[in-house]
């Protein structure tokens, strides 16, 4: 949420592409502190888009989440999931990621209507197993999925 500082950094370093990985990333925490997630992720992404606009940066890679699809326990959920599957988030974390995806798409559409360039990619990650069993990095592995191995 530091638009002027972000703008200055982009201009000083002649940035041509932004890869946006910043934000909180715990669905369970987002249920307890939803406003924290909206402020950090949605406001932060809005600030970043303002800075990119001011600095003339026209390419963005956004780290989203499979949480935008909701949960496969929902009978209405497409299994297997694919990019065009309906997005029905069940946590504030999923909602803020989807909100940011929609904000980025709206911003890109406004640029295109003004005949100005802007391109973006949305990355929706799945981590069904967890991370390091010793919890040195990432989230605690899910024991009931351990027979599938580890995603490194």
Please, could you describe this protein's structure?
The chain is mainly alpha-helical and 152 residues long. It has helices at residues 3-12, 27-32, 34-55, 92-113, and strands at 18-20, 59-63, 119-123. Strand 2 (59-63), helix 4 and strand 3 form a beta-alpha-beta unit.
Give me the number of helical elements: 4
Number of strands: 3
Largest sheet: 3 strands, parallel
Spatial strand sequence of the major β-sheet: 1-2-3
Mean pLDDT: 84
Could you tell me the strand content as a percent range?
5-15%
SSE pattern, N- to C-terminal: HEHHEHE
Q: How large, in whole angstroms, is the Cα Rg? A: 17 Å
SSE map:
Blueprint (H helix, E strand, L loop, with lengths): L2 H10 L5 E3 L6 H6 L1 H22 L3 E5 L28 H22 L5 E5 L29
Parallel strand pairs: 1-2, 2-3
Helix pairs in contact: 1-3, 3-4
Task: Throw out a few tags for this protein.
mainly alpha; 4 helices; 3-stranded parallel beta sheet; 3 strands; 152 residues; globular; 9% strand; disordered C terminus
Quick structural overview:
With 152 residues, the protein is mainly alpha-helical. The chain has helices at 3-12, 27-32, 34-55, 92-113; strands at residues 18-20, 59-63, 119-123.
């Amino acid at each position: 949420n530091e638009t002027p500082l972000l703008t200055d950094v982009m201009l000083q370093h002649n940035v041509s592409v932004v890869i946006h990985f910043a934000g909180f990333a715990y669905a369970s925490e987002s249920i307890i502190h939803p406003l924290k997630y909206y402020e950090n992720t949605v406001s932060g992404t809005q600030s970043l888009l303002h800075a990119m606009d001011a600095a003339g940066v026209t390419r963005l890679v956004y780290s989203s989440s499979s949480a935008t699809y909701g949960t496969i326990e929902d009978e209405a959920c497409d299994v297997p999931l694919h990019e065009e599957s309906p997005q029905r988030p069940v946590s504030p974390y999923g909602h803020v990621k989807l909100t940011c995806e929609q904000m980025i798409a709206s911003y890109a559409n406004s640029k295109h209507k003004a005949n100005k360039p802007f391109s973006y990619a949305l990355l929706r990650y799945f981590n069904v197993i967890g991370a390091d069993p010793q919890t040195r990095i990432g989230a605690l592995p899910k024991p009931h999925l351990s027979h599938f191995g580890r995603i490194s």
